[in-house]
Amino acid sequence: MLRTIEISMVILILAVAFIAATFFAVLPSPKQISSPNLRQLALTTLQVLDVDKSLTEAIFENPTDPAWTDLEIALSASLPPNIVYNLTVYDITKSSGDALTYRKFHSITNSESGLGTDSEASTYLVMSTNVTFAVTPQKISGTLYILNCSDANGWWITGYTSQSLAEDLYNLLSPYFNTTIMVQNTTDLGHILDGTEISSLPYENVTNAVIINTCGEAVPIPSAYADSYPRDSYAEYCYELGKRVNQYNWTWVSIVGYPFFYVSNTIKLASSDNSWGIYGMRMVTAGGLNSFLRGLDVENYPSYSYDGSWITGSPGVVYFSTEAYYYSNYYGIYPSPYQTATRALPSWIQGTYHTTVTASVFNPVSDRYAAATFKHTGTGAFTAIGLTRTPDIRITALSLLMYYHPIIYKSEFTLTAGERPTQRLIVLQLSQQGGS
Amino acid sequence: MTGVTIDHLVATVAFIGAMLLFIGLFTQTLQTAILYQQNRHVSLKASDLLDNILLSPGYPYKWGETNATLSCFGLQKPGTSGYVLSSFALMRLTSLSGEPVEYPRDSGKWYNNISLGPSGYLFIPISDSINYETASRLLGVNGTYGFQLSIAPIVKVSISEYQSNPLILKVEVDGPGFPLSGAALSYYFYRSYKTGNYASIKIFTDTAQTDSAGVAYLNFAFDGASETYTIVVYARLSGLFGLGHYSHRTFTRGGGVMPFVVDYEAGKVYLAHSWDVHDQGSPVPAYAFNATFFILTEDFDFQEWPIANSTGILNYGVKNYELTTLPVGCPGFLLVTYRVSAIEYGISIMPWGIGTLAVSTLFGDNPYGNVWTATDLRQVTVDQLAYQAKITCWSLQGYQIWNPTG
User: What's the predicted TM-score (pTM) here?
Assistant: First the structure.
């Protein structure tokens, strides 16, 4: 009898254990095992409704506006029939001390009894379409000179004029410089080369300037310099240019093709053509670039000497570097991330002319850099865009910004007291009805 | 002694019985919990899989516009973010909904058939399409999970003939949950008529608005039964965009001119004589056709785009097809109107990009026979149209699989 009592007690214990296990190990309802991801559904619904900014416009309207009725219909129509929603909009305002305050503005729902505890929600921040905001870039110290010489022709800028390119560059880059000056003729260029300022602007400074040559493969030549440095079809002038870049710590920018392949002055060289029928221009050939680099490295090439060898290469299609992708997004400049390079500078000029490659826009191919800045170990730098024509001026802008990488300061909304809020937060809460 | 023995016997039998009972009970509880866990895992997998498909453009980057072999599967439109899908990537998916079509008959060349209803055709070479096995392998679920993906417009724009003479068309605009009352409608009416030897089209556009039941009636001052036409209606309400189309033709003795995409990457399309697809007996009619391509602009307008060999006569045995080329990567639709006799005209329409005619896509495997499936959905946009992407996912492993054969 004792054994039976013991076994009965064991059975009792097992029964209690089972009841306890059943009581505590409560499995969720089948609906919860596989409910649609309501959070993602809510977010994507808001995104779809805002595809043409209709949602943004509606939620900034007065709650009595018909746009709210349309929004209710659109929400009801777009969600599956067994999903109920509650859409609440909050005003976001700045209170004292820059603290953000969220205040309920309006709410719409298609459920009278509430959404229950199983609901999920997503939030969506929108800005009023009439918001203005300021982007304040850090200013690069130094003056930006854009060669816009009316008495010089361009080459390999097919489809553009150097003047139109200059204007585009001005629009792209002037926000990043304290002073931007369009150099209107070769005479003014001559003044800069002599170290003389050409405007009365307070921040103009010839030293540490950036000079962008918009004439492509041609470089403007002042008449006086044409007289003084005529040797080897003006390759000597290119040497002088390199020397000035070094002397004044300039950054010289070539926007396309083979740099310094021609010199141009429509008055001085009116009777010369570049061998292709463009008058006012003279072909220097490959010696121009070598002379410039020797001038840049004047410490090691103290006097002019000629080298006419062709040094650029044609690596073909080149692709953005990781750094270029980053800065493209950072500055909001979006040229095509792959381009064709036929005049890419070789890596060995770093050793020969004591330069260092920085801010390479494209990944090097076969030790050639399609767009990069070669910074001299002393002073001066040379930004060469060795892409094929026609030029994409955005590459030039991106290359320079990558080199100087000025900071973009955080945008600040122009919200003033008493104005309607510029930001609203939308919370869309969804719940599944039916099932168990 | 006997009492003790009985005591032992009763106790032993009771103990064994209790043990068996409780082992069964506990096992059942454990099995339910394991099953729950496994089903939960399938559910999470469905959600992950859907996001993987919708939030990646795949690789090569613009694979939807080329014949490229895929190394990564994804349907997001290149260069966009979020749930914006590529109209052309969707077009390259092997459809589960339509029966493949062989063209020409007995040639062994099969085309993926995305059914659009009467007079609507979309035939893509199967050799250029991405099949389920490839997608499954690239998504890393081959042999472990099965799935079916449905991409369908959220807003359904249904058009039907309400009255023939004078013609009144009834347009119903519905979402999955509610009709769209007060939706703004814009419609493009393409009417076939004769000019010279060929058929041509007159275009008429207007606007309307749906009533509280999501219905609008469009009135025309002619007899619809004796006219050949296509109407494309575009509905919009508070960011929701939908589109529908409807065709009517007076020629009913055959398929007419059927467009086949023969070279996907180059955009080459055969305007084929239907006799090469379906033998509908003698006499075999000749089709004097006029093809027009309408490109979808950014502000959701359809603009005419010149195409090669846009007019001609398909006379079976003399000329079985005409070749034309559509602009690659530019969504729109091809409208072919043709004349058979003085009173018989036909019209064919083919979308170029899934979104331009709000075509649905069903891709993947059939879930029939699987004991448990999980579903998940997202709202997406395709060519600015609101679509719903729904995935059905199931496990191909584990004890819970019910095997019908064994």
Answer: 0.66
Q: Confirm whether A244 is domain-assigned.
A: yes
Question: Looking at the domain assignment, is residue A17 inside a domain?
Answer: no
For residue A73, the chain B residue with the least C-alpha distance is B180
Phi, psi of B374 (to 5 degrees): -115, 145
Question: By residue range, what is the domain housing residue A273?
Answer: 137-410
Tokens of A318: 């080149």
Tell me, yes or no, whether A344 lies in a domain. yes
Task: Report how far residue A73's alpha carbon sits from residue B233's, in angstroms, rounded to the nearest whole number.
Answer: 19
A145 and A98 in a single domain? The answer is: no
Structure tokens at A67: 């746009």
Query: What is the SS3 assignment for B386?
Result: strand
Q: Check A49 against B240: CB less than 8 A apart.
A: yes
Tens digit of each residue's pLDDT, chain A (436 residues)? 778 888 888 888 888 988 888 887 776 666 666 667 888 999 999 999 998 888 998 998 899 999 999 999 999 888 988 889 999 999 887 776 667 788 899 999 988 777 776 788 999 988 877 666 667 788 888 899 999 888 898 888 887 888 888 888 998 999 899 889 999 899 999 999 999 998 888 788 999 999 999 999 999 999 999 999 999 999 999 999 999 999 999 999 999 999 999 999 999 998 887 777 778 899 999 999 999 999 999 999 999 999 999 999 999 999 999 999 999 988 989 998 889 999 999 999 999 999 999 999 999 999 999 999 999 999 999 999 999 988 899 999 999 999 999 998 866 555 554 556 678 899 999 988 765 4
Taking the CA of residue B334 and the nearest CA in chain A, the distance in Å comes to: 26
Rounded-to-integer distance, Cα A260 and Cα A239, Å: 10
- How buried is A382 (Cβ within 10 angstroms: 0-12 exposed, 13-18 middle, 19+ buried)? buried
Nearest to B82 among A21, A47, A79 (CB): A47
- The single-letter code of the amino acid at A141 is S
Show the tokens assigned to A242: 């390199």
One domain for residues A191 and A143: yes
Does residue A251 share a domain with residue A119? no
| Among A50, A70, A79, beta carbon nearest to B177 | A79
Count of domains for chain A: 2
DSSP A138-204: PPEEEEEEEE--TT---BS-TTS-HHHHHHHHHHHHGGGEEEEEEE-SHHHHHHHHTT---S--TT-
